[in-house]
Amino acid sequence: MKLQIKIIPFVLVGASLLIFPLAYGQNKFKLRPDAKGKLCLECHDKFKEKLKDKFIHTPVKSGECSECHNPHTSRHGKLLDTDTNKICIKCHQGIIPAKAQSVHKVAMEGNCVKCHDPHGSNNKNNLLKAGNELCFTCHKTIGDAVTKAKFKHNPVEKGCLTCHDPHGSSKSKDLLKKELISLCSDCHKPNSPAFVRDHLNYPVANANCSSCHDPHGSNKGGILFDNVHAPVANKNCIQCHESPTSSTPFKTKREGYELCRGCHSTMMNDTFSKSRIHWPVVSKEGCLSCHEAHASTQKKLLIGNVVSLCGKCHSDTMEKRDKYAEMDKKEKASLAAAKGKPQDKGDIAHKPVSEGDCLACHKAHASDSVFLMANPSQTELCGTCHEWLKHSSHPLGEKIIDSRNKNLTLQCLSCHKSHGTGYTHLNPFPTVTELCVQCHKKFKR
Amino acid sequence: MSSGSESRLERGERMAGTSIKIILIISILLLPWKSFGAETAKLRYFQSIYFDERGGGMRQPEGLALSDKSVLIVGDTGNGRLLRYTFQDKTIAGGSEMKVPQLSSPIRVQVDSKGEIYSLDGKQRRIVRLSPKGEFKGYLSPEGLPSPSNFVPRSFKIGASDLFYILDIFSGRVLVVTPNGKYQKHIEFPKSYGFFSDLAIDQKGGILLIDSVRKMVFAAPKDSKEFTPLAGSLKEYLSFPTYITTDNRGTIYMVDESGAGIVMLGQEGSFLGRQLSIGWNEGLLNNPSQMCINEKGEVFIADRGNSRIQIFTQVK
Question: How far is Cα B134 from Cα B80, in angstroms, rounded to an integer?
Fold first, then answer.
């Protein structure tokens, strides 16, 4: 009995230690019981209108403004209790799957307000816009393609969330709710006679559907990508692959570029006649290093746009490109701000490079020049855009020897670096003087 | 007795204290040596070669190789020829031209133990065999290859016993063949890679591959049947490496073509340093291609963009 009495104070202290933080958490600002929310609305009068929205965020509905805002002071905008990008996760911890295979960038960055109104909205889940309209605000290219597509894909019409998880997916890439094949076969049964017939008896049940079909709709029947390889369009799979009854039906009849050479012999012969080849052409992947075999959104069946395609291997060049484009933008903005109007001090970025038009200067397959230049003469190549260059007063060309090195002739690239240097006019030195005195040494000071 | 033992104790303590101080001082003095112990020697510019023996200039040379007898063979790619020099006692001599119609674009050069010259022709993508004097002797045509029988050499190296190691990018493998082309074995490229531009044979007979896209080195030790990454991505130090070789101490050298530099790694893949930079002046590089190192550690680089060969010595 005595022992029980002795325990009581400890129990009371323990209980108070447990209860106090909870109670404090519930009412850390010691608000009067009748003050919740109502007190805030005394000043934030316009907020009353917001409360009329169809869907209200739970803490707002229960008047717990202090769940997110600090009524006194804060280091964060809008008197938020925590950083804007971290506050939602306080309650919505499981919104991104623990072992996500793909995560929506905005969710990962905590930019929840890009899609949700933190107080309330007339759209379910407090979304800023309803349905696909919200997604197409950022994914404009897809939105435009979906709108213009002649052949629509039903699930897209129903809503992006039919196939995608907006926050993250633990099952697949591209925020897909399931693995692609499994997702497609929910509706398109691979064993159905129509499906088998349409795929010319090839066992495509486990093939990558999106290597031919555009899941967002297209202008081609069967929602094939807009640019279709002729044998696919002609349903002539056997032109490249073994027979559907073969034990290896998808095996190609020949390896690498040798398969493509059968039809594209003129292009291939031209490629092989040059002294310098783009090595991926003759690699194991061959033409598929850059081209899709079946269908593509891009012309010439390219895997992606030129920047992403070339950048796949030449990431160093693309990183410089982005860096110099950014510098160029900043330089021009600061000049404009200082003088009131843009000043022409020369570009830091080379236009075809910043526009991602690699093929303006380079050949994709082969060339007789280093760097696979499109024209063996630098002055002629540069002269296609820089017409004035042909009339420049500085001697240029194959007959003019570079005074720094007798094996070099004076070319445009003797003074400029075509992919940029970080200085204006693609000058390898910070000032023009520093460049000129490389050869004109007597003027060096 | 007591005072005597105390004094011995004091002496002992003093000696121990002095020893600790000495150890500390030595440690401090050795610190810089220890810090830079792993760092390799620096490349110091020595000489450039611009011309052949008749005064004709080189044009975008990409290949070069040294024989055991101090013969330097240069692949003068832009001029579609090979040039033969000697380099003895730090003196360059010769520069005779070797030109055959079968070799219009020599992009890689190797010399075997007999002095025979092998060069990869960039246009035909075939390995051309020449006598030490430069007469055409045929092509290195591997025989008895496992399927596929076709192959495309991106590069090649000659290892011990004059075995040829060919980087076959068409089938994604390294082929090992005898000088007469007889197939010995092959090792498949790793499952995941970007693009392999070159291979090297280290002192222990292992094979190294340089992945230009991922900026990684893959290694297959001697008798291994697969390649594994030697180190992680070297993106921090390399822009687009296209050539790899080793010296007689096992140090790995990589030519950073677009970054215009040489990066060195230890045998285990540890970063040892980056040397040289972009420019026109002697000692600087512009889109360097092949390089080689002789027994004395002298480094020869085909400075393609500057249409010259540059020679560097190594200083500590």
Answer: 13
CB within 8 Å: B172 and A284: yes
State both tokens at A356. Answer: 């991602």
Query: Which among B104, B280, B281 has the least Cβ separation from residue A275?
Result: B104
Q: How many CB atoms lie within 10 A of CB A361?
A: 21
SS3 of A333-387: the string is HHHHHHHCCCCCCCCCCCHHHHCCCHHHCECCCEECCHHHECCCCHHHHHHCCCH
Subunit contact B171:A258, Cβ cutoff 8 A:
no
pTM over 0.80: yes
Cβ–Cβ gap A279/B169 under 8 Å: yes
Q: Select from B148, B154, B258 the Cβ nearest to the Cβ of A316.
A: B258
Residue A385: alpha-carbon gap to chain centroid? 30
Measured torsion, CA atoms of residues A16, A17, A22, A26, in degrees rounded to the nearest 10? 70
Instruction: Using a CB–CB cutoff of 8 Å, tell me whether B239 touches chain A.
Output: yes
| Alpha helix segments (H runs only) across A375-431 | 378-383
* ipTM of the complex model: 0.87
Cα(A265)–Cα(A271) distance, integer angstroms: 10
Has residue B46 got a pLDDT over 90?
Answer: yes
CB contact at 8 A, B300 and B316: no
Beta-bridge partners for A213: A224
- B122 to chain A, any CB pair closer than 8 A? The answer is yes
Residue of A nearest to B58 (CA): A407
Q: Give the nearest partner residue to B150 out of A255, A316, A438, using CB atoms.
A: A255
Average pLDDT, chain B: 91
**Across the interface, do B150 and A404 touch by the CB < 8 Å criterion?**
no
Q: Are B188 and B172 in contact (CB under 8 A)?
A: yes
In whole angstroms, give the CA distance from residue A37 to residue A44: 10
pLDDT of amino acid A12: 65
Give the gap in angstroms from C-alpha A354 to the nearest C-alpha of chain B.
18
- Alpha-carbon gap: B66 to the closest alpha carbon of chain A (Å): 23
Instruction: List CB contacts (< 8 A) between A316 and chain B.
Output: 239-240, 258-259
Given CA atoms B248, B251, B254, B260 in this order, what sign does their dihedral have? Answer: negative
What are the tokens at A207?
């093939």
Is there a contact between A121 and A54 (Cβ–Cβ < 8 Å)? yes
What is the C-alpha separation between A36 and A371, in angstroms, rounded?
70
Tell me the residue type at B205.
G
Residue B134, C-beta contacts closer than 8 angstroms, at least 6 positions apart: B82, B84, B96, B98, B99, B100, B117
Residue B36, pLDDT above cutoff 60: no
Q: How many whole angstroms separate alpha carbon A61 and alpha carbon A58?
A: 5
- CA closest to A407 among chain B residues: B57
Overall average pLDDT of the B153-158 stretch? 98
- Provide the shortest C-alpha distance from residue B171 to chain A (in Å): 5
Closest by CA to A56, choosing from A99, A10, A118, is A118
Is B63:B290 a contact under the CB 8 Å cutoff?
yes
